[in-house]
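Progress note, project year one: complex with coenzyme A.
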Amino acid sequence: MSDDPLQVRMRPLASSDFDRVLELERELFGPGAWTYGMLADELAGLGRWYVVAEPDGIDALRYGFGARPVIGYAGLWFDGDVAQVMTLGTAREYQGRGVGRALLQALVDRSRQLRATSLLLEVATDNEHALALYASFGFERLGIRKRYYQPEDKDAYTMRMDLRASTTGGHGDAA
Ligand SMILES: CC(C)(COP(=O)(O)OP(=O)(O)OC[C@H]1O[C@@H](n2cnc3c(N)ncnc32)[C@H](O)[C@@H]1OP(=O)(O)O)[C@@H](O)C(=O)NCCC(=O)NCCS
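Model obtained:
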C-alpha cells in the first residue's frame, strides 16, 4: 500500500495539539468523533500514552521551519496488565504512506516497554484498511461487540495481539 512512504517523527501529544487532533477526529470519525471534553478527559485518565506524527526529514522541508502539521495520532491505555489501543488515525491526504503503521508500531513498542501481556483493540467490522493493518501485525479476532459504535450503530471486532508471543511487531520495520 505504502508506495511512497512518508518520513515521520513521533512526539507526545500536547494540549496545544487539541485543535488539530479534534479536526482530524471529525475528518476520520465523523459523528463518532471525540469532543474537546472527551479528549481532555481521556488524556487526564490514568495510564494513558498518546503520540502525534509529524512529517520529518525531506518531507518536513516543504512546511517551513517550525510549521509541521500533525498528520496522525494514536494512544493507548495501560491498566497494569494489558494495553488497549484507544485511537489511531492518519489524516486522509497522508493515508497509505506508512504513517498508520508507524503509529501502531509506536503503540506496540510502548506496550512492550510497559511489560503489557497483550495489546487489545476494537475496530469496526467494515473498516477494511484498519483490519488489514491489524492483521499484518498479528492481531487476532477475539469476538464481536454488537452496535459498539454509536451513533453509527456499527458492530466492532475485539482483537488482541499477544505481546509474549514474539519480539517483533508488524513487518518489523516501522516506517
Ligand atoms: C487505518 C488507518 C489508521 C491506516 O493508516 P495509514 O497511514 O493509511 O496506514 P499505512 O499507510 O501505514 O498502511 C498500513 C496498512 O494499512 C492497510 N491499508 C492502508 N491503506 C489501505 C488501502 N487503501 N487499502 C487497503 N489496505 C490499506 C494495509 O494493510 C497497509 O499495509 P501495507 O502498506 O503493508 O500494505 C487509516 O486508514 C485511518 O486513519 N482510518 C480512519 C480512522 C480509523 O479507522 N482508525 C482505526 C480505528 S480502529
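The two ends are 12 Å apart (CA to CA).
The chain has a mean pLDDT of 91.
No further modelling is planned for this target in the current period.
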